[in-house]
Records
---
Amino acid sequence: MKNKDKVTIRLNANENPYGCSADVLKAIKKNIKNVHLYPAIPIRLEQKLADKFGVDQKNIVIGAGSVRLIDGIIQTFVEPDEEIIIFERSFIAYEQLAAAHRRKYIFAEQTNFVCDLENVLPLITKKTKVIFISNPNNPTGTIITHIQLEKALKKIPKKVLVVIDEAYCEYVTDKSFPDSLSLQKKYPNLVILRTFSKIYGLAGLRIGYAIIEESLANIMKTGRIPFFFNSLSEDAALAALADEGFVEKCAEKNSKEREYLYQHLKQIGMNVIPSQGNFIYIVFKNDIEKEAVYKKLSDAGIVIANMKIFGQDKSLRIGIGNKKSIKKIMYCLTSKD
Ligand SMILES: Cc1ncc(COP(=O)(O)O)c(C=O)c1O
């Protein structure tokens, strides 16, 4: 096969392999002629999200991707002498953005690849301002449960913001996953982050949102840059929310393919961590074994995440692609050449 004919399969950024809803594309086409106009504040989207979650519009803060909201939370709420707690082996943006704002961050250890909140509690001091938890956790795919989250919230001081980043929540099939909206009613220091980048398939448009107590929302909104949102995104997001069937189908296919990939990787002797996300984390005995698997897949045009770039040794993260790409992965890993 000539190099130019080689198809690249992108499974390194936890994107949706099924694209986005056709209705989203229609909405974008309809609005494309207006790109010369400045965008308005996306109040229709705020209201739609508020209705969906049974909260007030004042509790919704929209941002250009949830990373922009993570950035905003650090920038707005963490003073120079305060500290942030994050987990080892978690979403890299928390530490990158804390470092960008020159804020001190402390790592909590995981227990069996789970963001164990029991390990956070002894790290909390008077200086602690924000705790970031990715749930499901990127890259390990593990979750903390409702009971575990509530147990920790009872003990965490109210002035500490507990940010639960649920970028992958629509993929979760485990019933013990937190009902974070109900917990937020009891614990207003719980901040929920969600995104349109994953199951909705709109990563390139940059749309994320926070569900957050009103006074905190107001502070975040005041600190926003003007024209923080692009003019194609609001209608695209509204169309995405309206097409619930697309989301359901993607979730269904993801859980089927996730189970298939997990079982097959296990069968060939890999140490795979059970995942609730749209990706799977594999831990190797050493970096040599890991690099061999990485190379084999990348030589076949399958791009996966080598966790070395995130400072994590001996591990790879594979996005759950469609059936065809998963078959191709298994073929590559089991063929002798
Ligand atoms: C846990 C987590 N949160 C947030 C994001 C980024 O989301 P967004 O595209 O909305 O900035 C990612 C992306 O990989 C992620 O893994």
Note: The chain has two domains: 3-18+245-334, 22-242.
---
Amino acid sequence: MSWFKIFSRKSKASHSAASVAPSVSAAATNAPLVVAPEVSAAADPLVENALPKIAIITGASRPGSVNKSVAEWVLAQVADRTDADVELVDIADFNLPLLDEAYPAAYQNYQNPATKAWSARVSEFDGFIFVVHEYNHTAGPVLTNALSYLNAEFNNKAAGFVSYGSAGGARAVEHLREILSELQVAHVRNQVMFSLFNDFENFSEFKPTEQNAGTLAPMVDQLVSWAKGFATIR
Ligand SMILES: Cc1cc2nc3c(=O)[nH]c(=O)nc-3n(C[C@H](O)[C@H](O)[C@H](O)COP(=O)(O)O)c2cc1C
């Protein structure tokens, strides 16, 4: 019996019927995990020339983090693109606590205002640029915690990465790719990696080298094309 079905049974035993999401008999089969993806598609592919909406999502909330300065640089670089609408979404604005929802995200039975606000914001977009730092050879907990809150809001969308660390944040992004695969996010191959030694002054002021800065546009090209493509299957 899968963990999901076990959770479903326990939930039914301890909560009133009205507060419990639909049961998931399909969980024992190969049916998709998501139960009721009542999430509005961001761009309507039937609307001619609809631009894909891309969110640059920050991945940190600690005071002094360089994360937002990198995200703001990304936004400035892509601002004049005519093939996508790009916005910065700062995770810190949502004040998400450590995951505190009673039900797995697949139920979409959100209880908390912060979760509902985060869900509504993510639902607006067709694709994501995650700005990723590396903590202990993996992606930082603020971002992975925020990803755990949602599911359908990310499904069949596209993502790319801008990472930084002593090894360019490469190990963090490899782990993030596994998480995003489970959320059915298509992550593009090209990756932007900034070195704490070469792309930051005193490890704190973001001053990207020309060579690494030049890797952003090809990554965003791949992302925009996949963001458009996946809108047709949602
Ligand atoms: C708890 C912690 C663990 C870290 N582990 C790594 C690591 O494994 N690899 C790495 O390249 N940098 C590591 N760093 C250094 C960070 O990449 C660097 O401090 C970076 O500026 C952090 O990003 P932030 O400013 O967004 O917090 C670590 C930093 C912290 C605070």
Note: Residues 57 and 130 are 5 Å apart (CA to CA).
